[in-house]
């Protein structure tokens, strides 16, 4: 059971690291913050607490994706629709 959770945590870290490349404050800022959060929780042994933290990480992943989609939408809207009325 611990190995499957470890795999989930590593997969979550990789996915967040990948998503952090386009972070508005910069990839280095995101990478440092991500590493600090994961190191802060490295001693958690309770499987339920680990699952809770994984859920929180997945929520952050969805929020980042929404941020990026919104930014792309705004850029496309600005490019193709003019506000000249």
From TrEMBL:
GO cellular component: mitochondrion
Domain Complex 1 LYR protein: 8-61
Protein's GO biological process: negative regulation of oxidative phosphorylation; respiratory electron transport chain
Family the UniProt entry places it in: Belongs to the complex I LYR family.
PANTHER family: ELECTRON TRANSFER FLAVOPROTEIN REGULATORY FACTOR 1, GROWTH HORMONE-INDUCIBLE SOLUBLE PROTEIN-RELATED
Protein name, entry field: Electron transfer flavoprotein regulatory factor 1
Organism of this sequence: Vicugna pacos
């Amino acid at each position: 059971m611990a190995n499957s959770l470890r795999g989930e945590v590593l997969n979550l870290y990789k996915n967040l690291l990948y998503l952090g490349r386009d972070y508005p404050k910069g990839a280095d800022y995101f990478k440092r913050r991500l590493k600090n959060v994961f190191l802060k929780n490295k001693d958690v042994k309770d499987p339920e607490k680990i699952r809770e933290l994984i859920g929180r990480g997945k929520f952050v992943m969805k929020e980042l994706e929404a941020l990026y989609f919104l930014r792309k939408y705004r850029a496309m809207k600005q490019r193709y629709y003019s506000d000249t009325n």
